[in-house]
Design brief:
83% helix, rod-shaped, YjbJ_sf
């Protein structure tokens, strides 16, 4: 996973946490739920990118290629 992808996912997660907190503070359940969904999406993207990197490494290992990270 590239540094840009990590930064984007971390930004999305922090934004979701802020939105969730604001929703709790104001009693707005919809905003709170949107924040939770945003955090879940960021977590899912992290897991997908980690899985992609794992597969790339395994395929590279099978064919003798070195993993090239961005």
């Amino acid at each position: 996973m590239s540094a840009d992808e990590k930064f984007e996912n971390a930004t999305d997660k922090m934004g979701g946490q802020a939105k969730e907190g604001f929703g709790k503070l104001t009693g707005d359940k919809e905003t709170q739920a949107e924040g939770q969904a945003q955090q879940g999406k960021a977590d899912a993207k992290d897991k997908l990118q980690d899985a992609r990197d794992t597969v790339k490494g395994a395929v590279g290992g099978m064919f003798g290629k070195k993993d090239k990270t961005d």
